[in-house]
Amino acid sequence: MTTEQERNHLSGKALEAYDRMLERVQSRLSDMEETTRDTLREEIERAVEFEYDLAEMTREEADLLGAYLQRDLEHLLHFVEETGEGLKEWLQLDLSLLEHQLANVLFSVADKTKIDTLELSQKLESHEPSQYISGEVATAGMFKCLNCGHMRCLTATSHLEPCDACGSHYYERVTSRWPRKDE
């Protein structure tokens, strides 16, 4: 878990770097015939290295953004696998609110990884939804304050701010059927 100081240390270029990393992962995955969770992780690691090599951020910043990207994409993939629903339901947003490019990149990553759904399902079966902490970078979607339930809407990759209603720093991503409900 990162500290408040580490999250706030990310430069103003962090949001742009996150989106570049997402686009790089999407581009590399689109060239592959088969995508697994391992190949997704490898491509995220390559994107982290590329960003670090640009010398616009420290190793720690690049690694932290990579961890944020991994969390968001695994959450998206698990949701698509569990529900069979798409990006609109995961984001809990009207896709017209998003930049068209971001929606296409997220959607293509989700589609590409559905190829190996059995392996992905087994690997993610024990995955619990990640908590988000204010100051972290997250991609677009709806987030619920874990303290008071207040909703925060991100329409683009952004830093999560403390809750407007109670000042809490802890959120969870809101999706229509996440996590899977036990029957």
Q: Averaging pLDDT over every residue, what do you get?
A: 75
Query: Distance between termini?
Result: 32 Å
Report the helical percentage. 40-55%
Strand content: 5-15%
Query: What is the helix tally?
Result: 7
Radius of gyration, in Å, reads: 16 Å
Shape: globular
Which structural class fits the helix and strand makeup?
alpha+beta
**Main pleated sheet:** 4 strands, antiparallel
In short:
This protein has 183 residues and is of the alpha+beta class. It has seven helices and six strands; from the N terminus they run αααααααββββββ.
Outline the structure in words.
This protein has 183 residues and is an alpha+beta fold. Mean pLDDT is 75; it is low at 4-8 and 113-128. α4 crosses α6 (100-113). It has seven helices and six strands, in the order αααααααββββββ. It is globular. It has a four-stranded antiparallel beta sheet, with no helix packed on it.
Write the layout of secondary structure elements.
Elements: H1 4-9, H2 14-30, H3 37-53, H4 59-83, H5 87-91, H6 100-113, H7 117-124, E1 131-133, E2 137-138, E3 141-145, E4 151-154, E5 158-159, E6 170-174
Antiparallel strand pairs: 1-6, 2-5, 3-4, 3-6
Core attributes:
183 residues; alpha+beta; 4-stranded antiparallel beta sheet; two-stranded antiparallel ribbon; 11% strand
